[in-house]
Structures are given as structure tokens and as C-alpha cells.
Specification:
This protein is mainly α. It has a domain of 59 residues. The protein is built from 2 helices and 2 strands; from the N terminus they run ααββ. The protein has a two-stranded antiparallel ribbon.
Length: 101
């Protein structure tokens, strides 16, 4: 669920008005114990028309590591020297500080 929350949050950063995931078993499990009233799922109309639909195969995304001193100084995990000395690590960021991290 945390991945979904991150992607929905970042949809705005990418110029979208909102990011939405359909209500499913993962959503159902997440809200259990978090609400004390019945939940009525909100779904898109079956005949909704979209200006654009973007599908991303998340299994093809690679982890990215930010190096000092700029956020733009990033490298894919497979580009990093395996013997690099690590002095400090911060897991997550303002965008991606998830409880799973």
C-alpha cells in the first residue's frame, strides 16, 4: 500500500491532478482496523474517457541511489561499485519515507 501512496503523491509532481488506484483486496486489507464505519468504494465510471492512460510495469523499475551533494546526482543500483565505502545512509526521502523502509 505504501508504494501506491507514494505513486499517487508523485502523480501531482508529474503534472497530474490526482493519482488513483482501484479499490481491491489490498485496499480492503489496508483500511481494516483504520475506520469505524462502512466504506463505500469509489471507482471510475465503467465508460469513463481519459485524455491519456499511462501504464508502468513496476517490476521493470530499478532502485536508484542518490549520491552527495545534489538530488540530481543519482545512479541506478547496478551502476554502483560494489566495493564503495559507505559512511552515511538515509533510507527514503520527503517523497518516499515509507514505514516499510
Amino acid at each position: 500500500m505504501a508504494d501506491r501512496l507514494t505513486i499517487c503523491n508523485m502523480a501531482i509532481e508529474a503534472g497530474g491532478k490526482c493519482g488513483v488506484f482501484p479499490y481491491d483486496a489490498i485496499t480492503e486489507e489496508y483500511i481494516k482496523g483504520r475506520v469505524n464505519r462502512p466504506v463505500e468504494p469509489i471507482n471510475a465510471d465503467p465508460d469513463a474517457v481519459y485524455a491519456q492512460t499511462i501504464t508502468i510495469d513496476l517490476s521493470k523499475l530499478q532502485p536508484v541511489v542518490a549520491f552527495p551533494h545534489l538530488p540530481s546526482n543519482t545512479h541506478y543500483i547496478n551502476e554502483i561499485d560494489k566495493d564503495i565505502k559507505i559512511d552515511q545512509v538515509i533510507i527514503g526521502s520527503c517523497t518516499n519515507g515509507r514505514y516499510e523502509d
